Amino acid sequence: MPQEARPFKASLFFVSAASSFATPSFASGVITGLQSCDKLAVVPVITITWAKMHNIRKPITMADIARSTGVSPMTVSRAFKQDASVSQETREAVLRAAEELGYVFDSTAANLRSQRTDFVAVTIPSINNANFADTVRSLSDGLAERGLQILLGYTNYDTKEEERLIEQLLRRKPEAIVVTGGKHTPRARKLLSNAGIPVIETWDLPEEPIGHVVGFSNALAVREMVNHFVSSGYRKIAFIGGDADRDTRGTDRRAGFIAAIKDHGLDAERLIAAGPPPISMREGANAMGRLLEQFPDTEAVICVSDLSAFGALTECQRRGLAVPEQIAIGGFGDYEIGAICVPSLTTINAFAAEIGTKAAKLIIDVLDGRLANGLGRVTIRPDLILRETSR
Amino acid sequence: MPQEARPFKASLFFVSAASSFATPSFASGVITGLQSCDKLAVVPVITITWAKMHNIRKPITMADIARSTGVSPMTVSRAFKQDASVSQETREAVLRAAEELGYVFDSTAANLRSQRTDFVAVTIPSINNANFADTVRSLSDGLAERGLQILLGYTNYDTKEEERLIEQLLRRKPEAIVVTGGKHTPRARKLLSNAGIPVIETWDLPEEPIGHVVGFSNALAVREMVNHFVSSGYRKIAFIGGDADRDTRGTDRRAGFIAAIKDHGLDAERLIAAGPPPISMREGANAMGRLLEQFPDTEAVICVSDLSAFGALTECQRRGLAVPEQIAIGGFGDYEIGAICVPSLTTINAFAAEIGTKAAKLIIDVLDGRLANGLGRVTIRPDLILRETSR
DNA sequence: GTCTCTTATGTTATCGATAACATTGATTGT
DNA sequence: ACAATCAATGTTATCGATAACATAAGAGAC
Description:
The structure is a homodimer of 391-residue chains.
Chain A lengths: L1 H15 L12 H7 L7 H11 L8 H8 L3 H8 L7 H14 L5 H8 L4 E6 L5 H15 L4 E6 L4 H13 L4 E5 L5 H9 L4 E4 L9 E4 L2 H14 L5 E5 L7 H15 L7 E3 L7 H14 L5 E4 L2 H13 L9 E3 L5 H5 L6 E3 L2 H16 L9 E3 L3 E3 L6
Parallel strand pairs in A: 1-2, 1-3, 3-4, 4-5, 5-11, 6-7, 6-8, 8-9
Antiparallel strand pairs in A: 10-12
Helix pairs in contact in A: 1-3, 4-5, 4-6, 5-6, 8-16, 9-10, 11-12, 13-14
The structure holds a DNA duplex (30 and 30 nucleotides).
């Protein structure tokens, strides 16, 4: 529509300056419409007709409302804010006129002048992951109360991609930025540090946080599960996760597994790499197949997520392996599937939704000047949930 | 940060106009800083100190880069576009200066002036649904090739909420808008029609489309499954879905089920309402429980989605009911879980990702002026996928 | 009755990039 | 060789809302 509106303006220039023909952008649509007409004087009329034919109208602005209501544009602007001092009747008149004219508020102008966008940028590894979706949803709900909207991007579990994404997002001038994870490229770190807005790292406890943190230790959470499995008598314990060369939360979980196993004096060699994250149910199943072939005597397996754990469970079912009698399974993330599948999954609840809620509260506190210069550190303590896939 | 930057500017006004004390917004931060100083002449110095102390600097603009490079701001602007005519060395100098100064492109200004945001607004019912996530992902990937970014919002399966969301999104001046479903409030329809941008309705085949359509008939898809079930010998067929009072795709599927059943001269009374959408796995399981109590002789059940179907399946497993021997189950959406669970789910593949891809292509075609005034109508033909939960 | 304070509104300048138009020197075609 | 074209850059005005400041009229205080 802005594109279509352009010819109208261009044709006006046409009347005054013939040299504008040189401009390539001008030489497209309008010319065609005008060439059939040989009298330059009627160009404006033609143009208006053309515009009307195509139902092009210059977008309604506050100035239009002001004119039709008989007040100043500033008063119109005030009438749209709930707190501004405008008389009841003026406001009603303005809103009525706006409705009649079909006015749609133009936030791009407001954004520039007020230097506020009411955007909060958010990066997540994948849009198709119930855990991150939960975080985003509760974050979004929390921020909505203060009129903040989320600008979302996904990184495909790739820090280089994250860097590009962060750069893109910062151009939109968000009020704050929430990133998933605490590992970033050096340039991404720099971009975030220099952005001049609150930065919140989530789903992790970074060693050197950039700004605020709402997260938990992935390694520690898995360690707890290992401890529980060992105390339940399991000794030959395996781990199914993504490839080790990515800086993701899955890698931290894997590292936590290895450390915990070694602390118990056990063998930490039962590691199955299921490919680059995200690890799907299918990949979990495949990994389970490989695990059973490489280490048939495995007593328990911890998976990087409930999705891969469920996949592993189905593989056992296909092979007629009793869970947990012959092999125990643990997941991560407390997805809905883990609670309802048969047998139900032992897992770790990382409180995905709470991360979003806490992050939203943190952002609002910072933007409202509470928490002055301090940095927020919200540590979530994941819960071990014992269900039927382990004894 | 814009907040923090304000005092700096305000204090400059302070020097010229004492009456600015009256402004409440001014009477906050800066005054405190200045009161300890009794010589007005040094105010600028104080201010700079204060600004430095808090590491506040006026954001870098293209004008700054222009100054430091010795070119005009316009040349700087051109240097950032890949197609603009700028000499190689000038461009390099500009980019180098930008890097050194830590410049971040301000799209809010570009948005206003160029009347382009490169946003495409998208509404989906829920952010936590793998089907819609697939559509959004492929849509996003498709649009990214032309530099378009998605502005996403979710409606909670509520048309009133959708109306609010659409209004919010349109204020951001997207280049196009993609909505899920073809049922909207009258006001939402009006907003979309008047927006002056391409409108794409998806996941449905609306009777009166607003603009373009990329979708399929939910009713027809379920009808095919019913037909298959009947031809397989099932007669007592039930449907598990959301409450009937919502205008959603689930309601269409339910309607398609009823119509198809009646066409076969069968009894369409085995309808279990599982609550307001979205229907979770848990709700699917509960609904299955109720179904088995109300209609114990049911031979097959079709669920509004794979999630509820899987929930239903687990309920059968908990009750020791053999699937498909004692009862057959059909789902909808071809979620990953349906392919991997044991037994695997008979379902309908609605090609969620393809909807996104096609919509992206459509949008780009329209924005690039191909498809002139025509309206796109991309009809997807869902696939019936026969797996182990039915014979 | 004068002064202060508040409420409702108007005026002006501005946010930062860029569209539109202008200009200059170099290159090409015939 | 000279007009025509192009490549590279500059100048000016503008997108539309709103921050900052100004002002007029009414309410209340002493």
